[in-house]
Amino acid sequence: MAIAAEFLPKEYGYVVLVLVFYCFLNLWMGAQVGGARKRYNVPYPTLYAIESENKDAKLFNCVQRGHQNSLENMPMYFILMILGGMKHPCICTVLGLLYNVTRYFYFKGYSTGDPMKRLTIGKYGFLGLFGLMICTISFGVTLIRA
């Protein structure tokens, strides 16, 4: 731990905690998909239900899609948090919390079965990602100039 403490600001711990919070959010979303599988009778390994075979296909697919979209964006979110947080841990913490909260509402809105409801609050997640990109660019430029 002494090695990490030598080059990471102590506030970087907040970045780590926000990422762990997202992991719990992701596990919760996965559990919601599992519940939807039972509720809408969509067995494994079926990824998406077919509307001609299942009257609740759209409802299940919206729950599944809300989680899948979060998984698709997770690698970018994590790398931006990890790298940008090395120089701007407090800013990245706030931006990460914004992203986490909007991901929750994105998922909840999508899970209603009306895909447009994912955007009510969920659309603001891109502000968090854009801010994280700026922090990561700043970190990269600092490394190049050092």
TrEMBL record:
For this protein, the record's Pfam families field holds: MAPEG
Q: Write one Gene Ontology MF term.
A: leukotriene-C4 synthase activity
| GO cellular component terms given for this protein | endoplasmic reticulum; mitochondrial outer membrane; nuclear envelope
Alphabetically ordered keywords of this record: Lipid metabolism, Lipoprotein, Lyase, Membrane, Mitochondrion, Mitochondrion outer membrane, Oxidoreductase, Palmitate, Transferase, Transmembrane, Transmembrane helix
Q: What InterPro entries does the annotation carry? A: MAPEG, MAPEG-like_dom_sf, Membr-assoc_MAPEG
Q: In which pathway does it act?
A: Lipid metabolism; arachidonate metabolism; Lipid metabolism; leukotriene C4 biosynthesis
Q: Does the keyword Transcription regulation apply?
A: no
Organism encoding this protein: Arabis nemorensis
Task: List membrane-spanning regions.
Answer: 12-31, 77-101, 121-144
This protein is called what? Glutathione S-transferase 3, mitochondrial
